[in-house]
Amino acid sequence: METTGTAAVATGTSAAKRKPVFVKVEQLKPGTKGHTLTVKVVDANTVVPVTRKPRPANSLSRPSQPSRIVECLIGDETGCILFTARNDQVDLMKPGETVILRNSRIDMFKGTMRLGVDKWGLIEATEPASFTVKEDNNLSLVEYELINVGDQ
């Protein structure tokens, strides 16, 4: 059995990391992920948490805590979009702050786009940006409809 060029991958030698490609808000499309953006937080509104059924007492997992959810209007010089901040992310998403969202994704909620960062992504505070947010191009106000294309 001969080895090929995949031996370097199997031994765990590190590959060069890709440089992040920063995108603008107006470039976001439904169902996409892996976006890196620099945005300003314009507004933040707390969403009332939904009460869940209590977990059984014999559960081995940690007890459930009410989740903190805040919908933030974020944007850059090309447009704005709603961002759903969860739990620890809420502390970083204060109005007036500038943040870098790494590996963010577009979630669809009631036919509209929402930006989010899950456990594979990262939110970083950064120095204040010099741009002003273009609030008249709100991508979360555009309603999308899923159309199934079948055999015709």
Question: Please, could you describe this protein's structure?
Answer:
This protein is mainly beta and about 150 residues long. The chain has a domain at about 25-50 and about 65-125: OB fold (Dihydrolipoamide Acetyltransferase, E2P) (Beta Barrel). The protein is built from 1 helix and 6 strands. The protein has a 5-stranded mixed beta barrel with strand order 1-2-3-5-4. β2 and β3 form a beta hairpin. Residues about 1-10 have low confidence and may be disordered. It holds the Pfam family OB_Ssb-like. This is Single-stranded DNA binding protein Ssb-like OB fold domain-containing protein. It comes from Noccaea caerulescens (Alpine penny-cress). InterPro entries: NA-bd_OB-fold, OB_Ssb-like.
What's the short version?
This protein is an all-beta fold and 152 residues long. The protein has 1 helix and 6 strands. A 5-stranded mixed β-barrel has the order 1-2-3-5-4.
Key traits:
152 residues, Single-stranded DNA binding protein Ssb-like OB fold domain-containing protein, single chain, OB_Ssb-like, five-stranded mixed β-barrel, OB fold (Dihydrolipoamide Acetyltransferase, E2P), mainly beta
Question: What's the helix and strand layout?
Answer:
Blueprint: H1 7-10, E1 33-47, E2 69-76, E3 79-86, E4 98-109, E5 112-116, E6 122-125
Parallel strand pairs: 3-5
Antiparallel strand pairs: 1-2, 1-4, 2-3, 4-5, 4-6
InterPro entries: NA-bd_OB-fold, OB_Ssb-like
Domain Single-stranded DNA binding protein Ssb-like OB fold: 28-124
Pfam families: OB_Ssb-like
